[in-house]
Amino acid sequence: MALPLVSVGGGEDVIHDWNFLLSHIGLLRWDQQVGTFLYLLGLIIILTSVVAAGYWSVDQQEDAAP
């Protein structure tokens, strides 16, 4: 929360989104773990999609070969 927030209309009543969300669902004390989990989940999704695309590309080439 060290960065200044930018909002439409400005004002001092602006809050940080992740601070607001995590505090309302009771996960603010685990913010680093939530961030790490989401980072790793995104990494797994990206790697899975690259592997699947490679597999399907090779599979298509094998089907097209005479």
Please, could you describe this protein's structure?
The chain has a domain at 30-64. The model has no long low-confidence stretch (mean pLDDT 85). It starts with 16 loop residues before the first helix and ends with a helix. The radius of gyration is 21 Å and the shape is elongated. It is built from two helices and no strands. The protein has helices spanning 17-24, 31-64. It is 64% helix and 0% strand.
Number of continuous helical runs: 2
- Rg for CA atoms: 21 Å
Distance between the termini: 61 Å
Q: Share of helix among residues?
A: 55-70%
Question: How much of the residues is beta strand, in percent?
Answer: under 5%
Q: Give the rounded overall mean pLDDT.
A: 85
What is the overall shape?
A: elongated
Q: What low-confidence regions span 5 or more consecutive residues with pLDDT below 50?
A: none
Largest sheet: none
